[in-house]
Amino acid sequence: MMALLVAGCGALRGDRVETPGAGAPQERGEVAETAEKAAEIATQPVRDLGVAKPEIPPVLVRATASPYALAGLDSCEALAAEMGELTVALGPDFTVAAEAKEENKVAKVAEAGGKAVVNSIIPFRGVVRELTGAAARQRRLEDAIDAGFARRGFLHGVSLMKACPAPY
User: Fold this and answer.
1) Any idea where the domains of the chain sit in the sequence?
2) I need a surface site. Which of 25, 48, 75, 134 has the fewest CB within 10 A?
């Protein structure tokens, strides 16, 4: 399985990746995304054991505390700046990422194989994650991400109500 992960990452040729049967080569952004996923998979045991503790971005901490606050957001520029911070933390909004893109099956198989191998390294992984606090940290991060999505959607609605130009 690990060979699939390596093969998926090893198919890189310069700035492009050739995917069998997929037609056009993928752009550099997808290559970087694949590398990030591989790094995330490889470091999972470190997070499971509580050695690495991912930080929640401050914009998501604020969103968790008050997702529908409007203090200081009187102008279109302030709304756009806040939505921009959220986009940096969360990735592109659905309205931006809505274009259909072909799924890279080789990368998906490599990702699934890599996760299976890495997740089998730690016996009783779920219990270990609870004991080390990794599961609780993951739940807090997921809650912050959910609050960030809610806040960005709310701010987008406020921006539309104020007839602000689209920030993207």
Assistant:
1) 2-161
2) 75
